[in-house]
Design a protein that fits this description.
Distance between the termini: 14 Å
Shape: globular
Helix content: 25-40%
Number of strands: 9
Strand order of the largest sheet: 2-6-5-4-7
Largest sheet: 5 strands, antiparallel
Order of helices and strands: EHEEHEEHEEEE
Radius of gyration: 16 Å
Amino acid sequence: MARIFIAIRFDDEFKKRLVEVQDTLKARGVKGNYCSYNNLHMTLAFIGERYDLPAIRKAVSEVTVEPFNMTLGKLGSFPTKAGVIWCGVRDGQAATTLANQLRERLTEYGIKFSELGFIPHISLVQHPSSIVTDIAVPEASLQVEKIYVMKSERIDGELIYSEI
């Protein structure tokens, strides 16, 4: 069964800069589950496997996305049991405002989502063999104008994220 989330998607140039960071992590000996090029995104709300798609679509349609520029920032990590190395964004206030607005609409429609607080980040490596965050991140910016309802499913052993 598909897992549903709402996300900001990236253009090719933005994703190429993120892959450069991943390549540098690999060169530094970091092993782990690297997010594939096609799956790079920023999650605004993770819903999971139980969902009402029409209600989700209605909630998302009511979110006003004021276009904003998102620029890559520094690397960071989450100290979860498995660990995650992520790339932050400079001045994440616009992304945070958008995520909060989305989460309010989801709540209004009774849609359950992960209650973890929103931290604007892009996951690069899950379950890293070591935490390395002292890597220079290349310059990259993206104009955000839309959010997407996405699904995550395993197809032939590969994790695939796609817009629905």
